[in-house]
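User: Can you recover a sequence for this backbone? Please restate the input before giving your answer.

Assistant: Of course. Working from this structure:
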């Protein structure tokens, strides 16, 4: 889109919205956390101390079937654009800093120019557009940075993982479009909140226009750089292990109505805790304590943010969405990485550090199967909370939304809230507005089939049917009305449903440029490229 066209659209949108008073349109805050498990929050069954997030849920709605894209970058691409990640150029991941892929198309590794963003659409509708935190959508492409894609202000990290205490190098901090050094006493979770509050203070003092804030925490992504005092709060609380953790969380989920009394949780993928030696159990307790501390820190900051909104008298007409980008992260080996010494004296200016590992990740995603990277429920179903005192009927407070929704629904939802319009010269929206669900409707917003692909892991959801597979393995079929934990594979007993959904998935894959039957994996591609004579990814 040319600058003249963009400017004209902005003027037209402001004219369209001019009859709407600022107070008629809500401020919008989207809070995205990184690699948090389905059951980590108290309001989803967890034991981690999350009273502030739980309060949002208690005075709002909890979605039980809200879907992400299984991984950091694809999730952010769909959230920001309303499209499948392949349609944005981020079918797998963004290119690592300094390692461009040298290709174009669905897997190029940065946002293409056939998509727009929530920030662009809301800015055209008259909103201030603010962002703090993790972007992870641009690679080294300057034209894809937040301030080039609709955000008035940005403070955070352009790349993926960062050091919470001292981000540096090609995983450092950026303000606007300029790299900056981390100040003394920096801690990412606190800093992203503080900067967000200052941005809100500045724009609400300036005029009466509503604001859109995208607050994208890097926590609890590795390295698990917990504050020592937060870590000490949880040290020793996980010495009974993952078997006990799963049992207690499942009991709480049944009490909350998130897990039906007759639904069996997915089998745990790891060894029995009692089979481990005491020294290993102690180290694993320390790893999980570091993870819990990072989640706790996010909750402390949500409390700080909501308190600020209360002070500014902005809470009632500010809609807050809170969600995770994917399931808990198994990267870091089966038993994770690090120990208490690494928590107390973490490596700085690097992303080396404590990692959760597969066995704890499997527990954090209970009652579901799998974790980050996969599109079984443990990887792709995310906790999602909506809080809006002025817009969600009081009688719905604390209730569950069981209807299916996914990331692509944010674009039409926020566009409807803002009175905005979607450009006609980019790829059409894939999502549906969630406003009926926020008002209490029990009718599905998705009557069409929706689809996923990441690293060859693939799925389709059609009503109560879910088709899903791991890359290189056969398709599985589940009746989600009776089998949310994906235990009873019906692929062989209902071949007509299986084959219909496979055909639909392949048609969708052809339309959106998905690589199949052989997957595209950016890391595999870079390795091959580096081994080719005369080529380098740098």
């Amino acid at each position: 889109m040319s600058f003249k066209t963009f400017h004209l659209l902005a003027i037209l949108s402001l004219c369209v919205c001019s009859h709407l008073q600022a107070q008629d349109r809500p401020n919008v805050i989207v809070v995205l956390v990184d690699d948090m498990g389905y059951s980590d929050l108290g309001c989803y069954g967890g034991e981690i101390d999350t009273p502030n997030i739980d309060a949002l849920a208690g005075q709002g709605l909890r979605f039980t079937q809200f879907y992400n894209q299984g991984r950091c970058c694809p999730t952010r691409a769909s959230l920001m654009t309303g499209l499948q990640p392949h349609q944005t150029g981020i079918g797998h991941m963004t290119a690592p800093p300094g390692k461009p892929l040298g290709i174009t198309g669905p897997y190029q590794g940065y946002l293409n120019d056939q998509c727009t963003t929530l920030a662009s659409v809301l800015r055209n509708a008259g909103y201030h557009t603010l962002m703090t935190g993790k972007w992870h959508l641009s690679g080294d492409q300057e034209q894809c940075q937040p301030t080039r894609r609709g955000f008035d202000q940005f403070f955070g990290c352009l790349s993926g993982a960062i050091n919470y205490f001292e981000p540096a190098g090609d995983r450092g901090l950026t303000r606007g479009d300029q790299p900056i050094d981390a100040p003394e006493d920096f801690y990412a979770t606190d800093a992203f909140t503080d900067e967000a509050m200052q941005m809100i203070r500045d724009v609400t003092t300036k005029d009466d226009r509503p604001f859109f804030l995208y607050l994208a925490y890097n926590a609890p992504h590795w390295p698990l750089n917990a504050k020592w005092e937060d870590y000490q709060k949880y040290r020793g609380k996980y010495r009974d292990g993952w078997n006990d953790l799963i049992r207690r969380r499942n009991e709480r989920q049944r009490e909350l109505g998130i897990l039906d009394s007759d639904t069996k949780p997915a089998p745990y993928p790891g060894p029995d805790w009692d089979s481990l030696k005491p020294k290993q159990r102690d180290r694993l307790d320390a790893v999980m304590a570091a993870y819990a501390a990072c989640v706790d820190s996010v909750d402390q900051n949500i409390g700080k943010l909501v308190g600020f909104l209360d002070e500014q008298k902005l809470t009632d007409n500010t809609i807050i969405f809170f969600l995770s980008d994917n399931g808990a992260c198994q990267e870091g080996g089966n038993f994770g990485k690090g120990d208490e010494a690494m928590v107390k004296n973490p490596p700085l200016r690097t992303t080396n550090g404590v990692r959760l590992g597969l066995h704890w990740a499997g527990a954090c995603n209970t009652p579901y199967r799998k974790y980050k990277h996969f599109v079984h429920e443990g990887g792709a179903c995310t906790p999602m909370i909506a809080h809006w005192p002025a817009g969600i009927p009081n009688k719905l407070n604390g209730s569950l939304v069981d209807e299916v929704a996914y990331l692509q629904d944010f674009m039409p939802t926020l566009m409807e809230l803002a009175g905005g319009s979607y450009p006609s010269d980019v790829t059409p929206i894939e999502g549906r507005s969630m406003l009926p669900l926020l008002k209490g409707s029990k009718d599905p917003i998705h009557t069409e089939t929706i689809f996923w692909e990441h690293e060859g892991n693939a799925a389709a959801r059609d009503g109560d049917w879910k088709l899903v597979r791991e890359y290189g393995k056969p398709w599985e079929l589940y009746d989600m009305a009776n089998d949310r934990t994906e235990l009873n594979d019906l692929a062989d007993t209902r071949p007509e449903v299986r084959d219909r959904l496979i055909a639909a998935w392949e048609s969708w894959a052809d339309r959106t440029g998905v690589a199949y039957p052989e997957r595209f994996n950016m890391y595999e591609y870079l390795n091959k490229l580096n081994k080719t004579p005369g080529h380098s990814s740098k």
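That completes the design. Residues 70 and 326 are 5 Å apart (CA to CA).
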